[in-house]
Amino acid sequence: METNTPYLWLTRIEEKFINKSPLGKFSTITLTIGIQPLILNMIFFYFIFGTAPTRFYFLQILAATVLIVGPFFLYRYETHVFPRFIHLAKDVTPHEDNKKIKEISNKYREFYAKKYYYVVIPWTIILFGALYLNLPYFQNMGVEGFTDPTFIPYIIGWVIYAGVITGIGLHMIITTITCIREVGDLNFSIDPLHPDGLGGLSSIGYFAISSTTLFSIGSLSFPLFFDIADQSGIPIFIYVIVIVYIGCILLSFLYPTMYINRRAKEIRRNVLESKRERIYNYHQEILNADSDKNIDRMKTKLDTLRDEYDEYDKINLYPLSPSIFSKLLSSIMLPLIFLLLETYIVS
What we know:
Blueprint: H1 9-20, H2 25-34, H3 36-48, H4 54-89, H5 98-114, H6 117-133, H7 135-139, H8 152-184, H9 202-216, H10 222-232, H11 235-288, H12 292-314, H13 322-346
Helix pairs in contact: 2-4, 3-4, 3-8, 4-5, 4-8, 4-9, 4-10, 5-8, 6-8, 8-9, 8-11, 9-11, 9-13, 10-11, 11-12, 11-13
């Protein structure tokens, strides 16, 4: 990690644990920070043991997986996914814009590290409200009320902790979308011979899909939401949440990539227009040439320019490779599977 770069407070804590641990990054973060909601869950289970059905414990553990691996996903985003995008983005921007890329990088690193509370605070309040409105569900599991001391571990683990982790996850998506949009405003170049077959734009697609994939882990909490909806009698509310969530997954990938696609088409159109003018000028020079030697030389240049024109004209400018598409499909399939199971099997 760069010492002069602002990092999220959670990432700094994770780095301290990693530096002192003999284990890998995932194991260290999971066993130090990620395990805490699981411990709080177990305390809550101890108090209500025997009063809740078996499915309640299973659904709680499944949903807790989001919070257990969430801190590592956030760590990976800030230390690997985001820096990798900035590094690769320099390959498709002119050298004079590299300074601008660095400014954008610092701007959104700081935005992610310091402005997270704009999302975390209102999101946590929403979770508190949802918990309060669905209190009858937990009363059926043995909780006497919102102020029941046995409920405190759950409130800490599932409202405060979940509000922070998932709120930062939402903030991550906002950071990704706005950062890609600003990079897209630069006059980036398109390389028809780039190995990715997308003119070098695959870095943008991978950045968007990486954020989307990390965000999609939240769908593991859907079975718990469906169970709460079934007990509270307001399933339409949960279905709306699921649909909105899937919409956010699609938006987090489609909006930035479609914006980049539109910008790339504008850039290609300008390049093709320039090459078209040069082809026309060479053609006129050939017609007015006074020697066969000059004609042959200009025909060679004309053929080369036409080949370049065809290469630019044929290149696919949407940053969606088969591997990126498979990740996008897997990101939306998990919540859809849970929705179908609830609709056609459980119900």
